[in-house]
Specification:
By secondary structure, this protein is an alpha/beta fold. The protein has one domain (3-224). Helix content is 33%, strand content 16%.
Length: 228
C-alpha cells in the first residue's frame, strides 16, 4: 500500500499543507503547473500588530503560460526584507528565540534565483523542524502526460501508488473514475476542525504560515496539527 499527494509548491505554507505531506508516503511538488498570480505560490500570511499581512516574494511573470519552476525572483533582496518582517512581528512569540538562528540562516542564505527552488528549500527545512520524513519529489523528474487528471494518474502509476490523496479544490476537475479504472483509490484531504493555539495579536486566524505555529508553540506545534 502506498499513498501519494501531488501539489504545487507554496511559499512557507500553512499547517494544512504540512498535514497533507505527513499523511502520505511520497509527496510531489507539482511545479510544472502554470504560475498563478496573486496566489499562494510566492506569498503567505503572517500575524502582525496591524492584523493579517501578506509576505510576498517579488517575481517576474514574463508570460501567462509560465510554469512555477520557470518563475524567477525579481528582487534579490527579498530575503532580507522578509526576515526583518518576521523578526519584528514574532520577537515576542514564546519560541521565536528557539528558532531565530535557524530561520535567520535560512533566509539570509536564500539567494536562489528561482521561486520553485526557494519554496522547496523552506519546505524541507520546516519538514525537518516538524519531524516530517515523507519523501519529497519534483514533477520535473518525470515525463508528464497530457490532461489534468491523466497527468496526476500517470504520476501515481509511475510512483506505484495505490491511493492518491488530493486537496479538496481538485474536486472540481479530478476524474475519479479514471483513477478507479486504473485501480488507484482517491481520498480527499479534510482541512476542517483544527484546534486553536496560543497566537499573538488576536483574533485567532488558522490560515497563516506554518512559521506562526512554530514560533508560538515550538516543539508542541505538531500537537495542533490533525495528522497525529
Amino acid at each position: 500500500m502506498k499513498k501519494i499527494a501531488i501539489l504545487q509548491s507554496n511559499y512557507i505554507p500553512w499547517k494544512g499543507y504540512f498535514d497533507l505531506i505527513r499523511s502520505v508516503d511520497e509527496f510531489v511538488l507539482y511545479d510544472d503547473m502554470q504560475y498563478t498570480k496573486n496566489d499562494w505560490r510566492n506569498r503567505n500570511k503572517i500575524k502582525t500588530q496591524n492584523g493579517l499581512e501578506w509576505i510576498t516574494i517579488p517575481v517576474r511573470q514574463e508570460t501567462l503560460a509560465q510554469t512555477i519552476r520557470e518563475t524567477r525572483i525579481a528582487n534579490p533582496l527579498w530575503h532580507k526584507q522578509h526576515w526583518k518582517m518576521l523578526a519584528q512581528n514574532y520577537a515576542k512569540a514564546a519560541h521565536f528565540k528557539e528558532y531565530r538562528e535557524i530561520f535567520e540562516e535560512l533566509y539570509l542564505g536564500a539567494t536562489e534565483s528561482w521561486l520553485s527552488e526557494i519554496n522547496r528549500k523552506f519546505l524541507l527545512a520546516i519538514n525537518g523542524l516538524l519531524g516530517i520524513t515523507t519523501t519529497i519529489r519534483c514533477s520535473s523528474e518525470f515525463t508528464l502526460a497530457e490532461g489534468k487528471s491523466e497527468r496526476l494518474l500517470a504520476l501515481c502509476q509511475t510512483l506505484g501508488a495505490t491511493t492518491y490523496l488530493s486537496g479538496p479544490a481538485a474536486s472540481d476537475y479530478l476524474d475519479v473514475a479514471l483513477f478507479a479504472e486504473a485501480g488507484i483509490g482517491v481520498e480527499w484531504m479534510d482541512y476542517s476542525g483544527y484546534p486553536e493555539y496560543t497566537q499573538l495579536f488576536p483574533p485567532f486566524a488558522h490560515g497563516v504560515s506554518m512559521v506562526d505555529l512554530l514560533f508560538n508553540e515550538g516543539g508542541k506545534a505538531i500537537n495542533f496539527m490533525k495528522r497525529m
